[in-house]
Amino acid sequence: MKTNNQIGSTRLGDEFQFEYLYYRVISISPNEVSLISLRTKVGFQEEDYNKLPLEIIIPEYVLLEGVAYSVVKIEKDSLDWEKYKEDEDIQARSLVIPRSVTLIKEELNTCFLFWIEVSEDNPNYSSLDGVLFNKDKTELICYPTDCKNEHYSIPNSVKSIGTNAFFWCKSLCSVELPNSVKLIEERACGYCENLSSVKLSASLETIGSVAFTNCDSLYHINLPSSLKTIEEWAFSESGLRSIEIPKSVVCIKAGAFGGVFKLTSVVSHIENLDKVDFGDYIFSFTKKPCSLYVSKGRIEHYKSFEAWNCFADVKEIEEIT
Question: CA–CA separation, 25 vs 141, rounded Å?
Fold first, then answer.
């Protein structure tokens, strides 16, 4: 018997194993499943991981009770395996995504991948040099966490850096954005502990929340004159020693530079603070001494704003030595 929610004994939401991966039924007529896990509900041990092939190939179709289902979706936690982060002796894998997959959830965890390959026939996604993009390569979706390259230059076609795109990439030391990029989404480069050099786009407008959080080796970054918005905790707990804020900025949200304990110099070119949307404690937990440099004649203007009154040492930019 077949209904809209059932084929034989198979129902929507049923979970099952096919070969070495785990799936969930998300549609019946058309018959479709999503990839949900590398492991069973009872856990995933090291010996289970070692049974995975070095090249993990997601099939276009899987079988359940003799019925074919198309694999159309990859869930955000489906590739997660926390234990891998703690065991450097475990060999990384590559991932092959078929043409049938038309939806990849944000926050894709790739902690054990060094390469992602997408079928050329896929209508929504593509890959280049092992990196995942949307079809026309205007969005960089995911740079594999375990890629060992120290430098990466983003292709000129890219306009946005997706959520978690470079998250936790420990080997990455430098990244260069083309001038086409206008948006860096949340957590894009978070926890890249060895990232020491970032060349931002000359047309960048928004840096997303916690985009560079916990980037311990990032001592300095040049913010472009096109920048308008710095979201919550964008550079929180990073290694910044100094920062220069361009006059183009119209919004700095809560904790944008919070917990930046080694910050010693802030230069702000913002002329009229009344026209800027400030969140709470944008420099919260910043240890003193940290000097603030502002435009000529604007010292008292800055001191009158709560968002900036954490600086005891406020000087004019002309005094920078």
Answer: 25
Q: Dump strand ranges (E) for 75-220.
A: 93-97, 103-104, 113-118, 125-128, 131-134, 139-142, 151-153, 160-161, 174-176, 183-184, 197-199, 206-207
CA distance 165 to 133: 10
* Contacts for 86 with CB less than 8 Å, ≥ 6 apart: none
Whether the predicted model's global pTM rises above the 0.85 cut: yes
Which residues, 6+ apart, have CB-to-CB distance to 128 below 8 Å? Answer: 137, 155
Provide the total of helices (H) and of strands (E) in the chain, helices listed first.
2, 28
Tens digits of residue pLDDT in 49-67: 677 788 999 999 999 999 9
* Span 87-132, pLDDT tens digits: 556 677 899 999 999 999 776 767 788 999 999 999 999 999 999 9
Terminal alpha carbon distance of the chain: 81
Are residues 29 and 69 in contact, defined by beta-carbon separation less than 8 angstroms? no
- Give residue for tokens 């026309």: 136
* Planar angle of CA 68, 71, 72, nearest 5 degrees: 135
Where in the chain are the domains? Answer: 149-321
Q: CA 246 to CA 269: how far, in whole Å? A: 5
Which CA distances in Å does 220 have to 63, 180, 240, 262?
53, 22, 5, 11
Distances (CA, A) of 218 to 93, 215, 230: 28, 6, 17
Q: Which CATH number fits domain 149-321: 3.80.10.10, 3.40.50.1370, 3.40.50.300, 3.30.9.10?
A: 3.80.10.10
Computed from CA positions of residues 95, 96, 100, 106, in that sequence, does the dihedral angle turn out positive or negative? Answer: positive
